[in-house]
Amino acid sequence: MIGFAGDAPRECRLCPRLVGFRTVNQGAEPEWFNGAVPSFGDPNAKLVIVGLAPGLQGANRTGRPFTGDYAGDLLYATLLKLRLARGSYDERADDGLELIGCAITNAVRCVPPENKPTTEEIKRCNSFLASTLAGLKQTCAVLALGRIAHDAVLRAWHVKPSAFVFGHGNEHRAHDSIALVDSYHCSRYNTNTGRLTTEMFEGVLTHAKTLAGL
Question: Which of 24, 69, 160, 206 is the most buried (most CB within 10 A)?
């Protein structure tokens, strides 16, 4: 299932810079999704994974979070290994892959130039993240992929980000009933530099799965 209540409309116009970038991409690649990417996964998710933003040739192309780029290769392979997904991941939104007990969304729903949203863009998009998280009533754990996702989740819960320090593997109790777990983002840069290994990522996702009761 793709999309949840509270997701941004595909043609969201809140951020002028992102709208301009979308327009350029629509002209260059009219067959791509080129819009605010909806959340993906189980509507009864106990675990929610929050990333940064759609990749230009990944989710912005396919219309599904983390689908079509290296970060998705690692994320979906790990979800399949941990039995949080079933089917086959084939870098397409219509590959038939299903998530089990988990969902994936982003702090920013539209692709930003150079994969770098501005502070204002992150803040404008936070209402959609807050609505998505609030709508997933069964959630017991959130896994934040990177510092921006960590801060965005806390803002969505009306908690000051400075109150909880981001760090790979850190676990926070910033919400009455939901645990927040941090991970370095599963980007090619982080894995190529050794900042994040496959084993590290599998370990932190396993921990988040356990906290979610899956």
Answer: 69
Measured distance CA(7)–CA(37) in Å, rounded: 8
Fold of 16-212: Uracil-DNA Glycosylase, subunit E (3.40.470)
pLDDT of residue 133: 97
Q: Is the dihedral of CA 174, 179, 181, 186 positive or negative?
A: negative
Q: What is the torsional sign of CA 73, 75, 76, 79?
A: positive
Average pLDDT over residues 178-185: 98
> Are 117 and 53 in contact, with CB atoms under 8 Å apart?
yes
If you average pLDDT over residues 182-200, what whole number do you get? 97
Q: Which of the four pLDDT bands, split at 50, 70 and 90, describes residue 99?
A: very high
Q: Residue 109's closest CA among 210, 12, 178, 212?
A: 12
Q: What angle do CA 8, 12, 17 make, to 5 degrees?
A: 125
pLDDT at 5: 81
Alpha helices (H) in 87-187, listed in sequence order: 119-135, 147-156
**pLDDT score, position 2:** 62
Nearest to 37 by CA among 126, 105, 113, 114: 105
Three-state DSSP class for residue 179: strand
